[in-house]
Design goal:
Radius of gyration: 22 Å
Bound molecules: uridine-diphosphate-N-acetylglucosamine
Largest sheet: 4 strands, mixed
Distance between the termini: 13 Å
Helix content: 25-40%
Number of helices: 14
Shape: elongated
């Protein structure tokens, strides 16, 4: 059943909210478990549909998967012999499925992974993934919509330099190299906390990885890895979402379990905008209560720069800030779909290539809008909170992929948001 959120405008979100493990780490760590025979346990796993899809993909490879969403645990029982194919049906539903590529080539010597179709946030290549695996000795080609990588005689260490610090390519090359013969260095890698999380889990499994979190990772290959227990790194994008929720609604939110250090660029932007940000014993707190929030420019960049996944929230916040701002998207070309929906709510914003000029207005005006991906959906819900009247946000299934029970968390902070059937008559 299609659902939508009914958002009643006029809330200042106040209170505390908890963040759990990162979607973009949990899914990759599930793939990392393929590297060791035996029982690996992940904790602090978010309760989202994407984990269920990844679980299904791993089951089809022969892995026993026990996902307890309420407890936040995934237990993976990896047998000696596993399959090597990730079907299009699952990869198209979950792009993160391509993270099985590295572990499968390393463990099985072969991976057939469907090439994901275009998704709603711009086109993304796999060329860096493929080049990295080739450097490690795999033969890689694309056939019938599948990227096929084979290394019947195993992988060997190599010196690799990425043209761009791609998160996904860094992950696949790293997870392939841990069982390769000899030493691998990977330069210009992504430095995201999720990469550090993977490296930490690999370390617990017995891998020799150094430099994660810097732009050069060095791996000394080992013969085999052991299963482990690992807690997923807190979700910095969910935490950042709540930081922007506080700023946008002129509220005051303590983000329990959030790591301010992972959000230096966005929290710095909010401070410059006039918000108060402080770390607390349990996480951090953002307050804009009774304050004027001034417009702030944002340019997305690889970590530790401003995350592209928080760009829609910068748009929403600036839509009701004092003054004008320029938002620049440097990672994904088509990631400005939020703008046309914000315009429906009365925002004054113009797209020019990979920039948006946005001029703050005192209040938005409630209307039906459509979410096109996880982040734009959540950003539109926040926009509805600072709109006069009701805003109906369709495409709730997108939001559910990133935010477990988003409306309940919003209600606990004082918002009036309800989930209802989406009975739009013309679809
Ligand atoms: C991950 C995140 C996504 C986030 C993005 C950037 C997951 C599941 N998704 O995506 O939410 O927005 O990081 O922080 O973790 N590129 C190439 N060739 C390649 C690989 C990438 O050209 O082989 C380009 C892409 O087209 C894109 C840019 O690199 O323009 C960034 O992509 P990448 O860092 O790989 O992002 P993802 O890992 O796909």
């Amino acid at each position: 059943m299609r659902e939508r959120f009914r958002v009643v405008g006029g809330a200042n979100l106040v209170g505390e909210v908890a963040v759990v493990g990162a979607k973009n780490s949990a899914l990759k760590l599930m793939a990392v478990a393929l590297l060791a025979v035996g029982r690996t346990t992940l904790t602090n796993v978010p309760a989202i549909a994407d984990v269920t899809i990844m679980a299904e993909l791993l089951r089809r490879l022969g892995v026993g998967v026990d996902y307890d969403a309420a407890a936040g645990t995934v237990i993976l029982d990896v047998p000696e012999r596993i399959g090597h194919r990730a079907d299009y049906e699952l990869v198209r539903a979950l792009r993160a499925s391509i993270s099985v590529l590295g572990p499968l080539v390393a463990r099985v010597g072969e991976a057939d992974v469907a090439v994901p179709g275009g998704d709603a946030i711009g086109s993304r290549g796999l060329d860096l993934h493929a080049a990295g695996l080739e450097a490690l000795g795999a033969e890689v080609h694309v056939t019938h919509g599948y990227l096929v990588a084979t290394a019947p005689n195993g992988l060997h260490g190599a010196e690799i330099r990425l043209d761009f610090p791609s998160v996904g390519a860094t992950e696949n090359i790293l997870t392939a190299s841990v069982l390769a013969r000899g030493t691998t260095t990977i330069d210009n890698v992504a430095k995201e906390p999720e990469i550090v999380d993977i490296a930490e889990m690999l370390g617990s499994m017995g891998a020799k990885v150094e430099g994660a979190g810097t732009s050069r990772i060095t791996v000394s290959g080992v013969d085999s890895l052991s299963p482990c227990e690992h807690s997923v790194v807190p979700d910095r994008i969910a935490a950042g979402t709540w930081a922007f929720a506080a700023a946008t609604t002129r509220g005051d939110i303590e983000i329990v379990g959030g790591v301010a250090d992972h959000l230096r660029a966005p929290l710095g932007a909010l401070e410059r905008a006039g918000c108060h940000v402080e770390t607390t014993d349990r996480g951090f707190r953002v307050s804009a209560k009774g304050r004027t929030v001034r417009a702030f420019d944002v340019a997305t960049l690889p970590y530790p720069g401003f995350p592209t996944d928080l760009q829609p929230f910068a748009l929403t916040c600036n839509a009701v800030a004092e003054g004008s701002a320029m938002i620049t998207e440097n990672l994904f070309e088509a990631r400005f779909r939020t703008v046309q929906e914000l315009a429906r709510l009365g925002a004054d914003a113009q797209v020019d290539g990979h920039h948006v000029m946005i001029h703050g207005v005192p209040i938005l005006s409630g209307a039906p809008v459509e979410s096109s991906d996880i982040r734009s959906g959540a950003a539109l819900v926040l926009a509805g909170l600072v709109a006069e009247g009701d805003t109906l946000v369709s495409g709730v299934h997108h939001i559910d992929r990133g935010y477990p029970r988003f409306e309940e968390a919003l209600r606990s902070l004082g918002a009036d948001v309800t989930r209802e059937p989406d009975d739009a008559p013309f679809e």
